[in-house]
Structure prediction request, 497 residues.
Amino acid sequence: MEEENKIVAERREKLARLREAGVAYPNDFSRTHLSSDIESIHGEKTKEALEQEGIQATIAGRLMLKRVMGKASFGVLQDQGGRLQIYVSDDRTGKERHGRFKHFDLGDIVGASGVLFRTQKGELTLHAHELRLLAKSLRPLPEKFHGLTDQEQRYRQRYLDLAMNESSRRVFAVRSAVVAAVRDYMARAGYVEVETPMLQPIPGGAVARPFKTHHNALDMELYLRIAPELYLKRLVVGGIEKVYELNRNFRNEGISTRHNPEFTMMEMYCAYTDYEYMMDLTERVIRRAAERSVSSQTLAYQGRQIDLSRPFARLSMSAAIRQHAPSPFTDAQLRDRAFLSAQLRSLNVEFDQTQGWGALHLMLFETLAEKQLVEPTFIVDFPAEVSPLARRKDGDAEVAERFELFIDAKEIANGFSELNDPEDQAARFQEQARMKAAGDVEAMYYDADYVRALEYGLPPTSGAGIGIDRLVMLLTDSPSIRDVILFPHMRPEGGSE
Prediction:
């Protein structure tokens, strides 16, 4: 720390001299090329071709490497596109500019104009004629051979992580490509992108604990949305029959490698379809996102191979439990609360005596089968008890037309045939309200306006939500959700994680 303080003090002295000269932080510099532009256009040209063409370029970026050799020096500037070497010399750049360059520090933001050439080793290089210090870096970058490796520091100081680690920049380039691919696919499929409220008087659309705030002007309690679902389905009632939103959601829950209190989903709804259609659409969207962002449907994730090119498996929740049960279970047993209770006790899984067979059925699935679902698998036919917004299955009212998509044992998507019976929905909201009154902080509120919207008529509709963060984790081989969120939530510095 003492050594770093000394370096910072020396750099502040340099900045003070720049201020005295009136040249600190100029704002009249314009570049003509990114390093990637130069590489793509001129990267294959020979030394002779470059000399003959005399290609002029103006670049700017962070000084990442510097090598001073008397009358000539080399540097490397890093910009959004990559890196490009610059050559600074007494004869072409000028002794005065070269002298100033010798006092530049790693991390400084530098602009350079000059002519492209190839060095004796064949490296594409800009011979600088003009050279300017555009922004002084007062703090030293991490040691160049090791980069920024401390995981917590990478999350807290993402700006430094991005500056030092090309792998991190690639992750967020993939994330951007995923979002662009999703938008492009949905637009081509005729879906309308919308925006719904993040501040809501009644949080709904998911079973989750919300964040609460207060609006002073209206003197009312509001909640950060946990999902946009109920607003999007209101739009389907209004006639926007194919609708989606790339949305930020907030849930007041724990933090883990798969969970962040603030996360991104894409939710989509289509009238006159059912959950079978929505599974097909979800599969196509994910496959397109992989093609566009990483140019492959075969992924290497944490040492395992995952193939997105084949049709995703579809398996009922009961069948998934039976596949991984220690002994044969019948469908009747898997709906028998006493049997399910005994199984959960034997597995040391806690449950509440007020929970019905459907909740215990889901717990048994999560305990026995979920962690086994590595290849893309749709788990279908959830108990209606744990699916308060999903339509009941024809011929079996205790089961809902619902699916969840698992890849590498992670829930990537959740969808269902939407419940459009206002009286059934009101009854389920009342049950959720009863559970909330009994102490379940994640149970839903009763939303009278949503029930009123259904009373005007919601067409048969299906919907789904795809977790963008978890999808990007898979596509970038990232073990933690924090690796794919630019600014993940963390405890204050100095607190225990």
About this structure: Residues 114 and 128 are 4 Å apart (CA to CA). The radius of gyration is 29 Å. The chain has a mean pLDDT of 95. The longest helix spans residues 166-188.
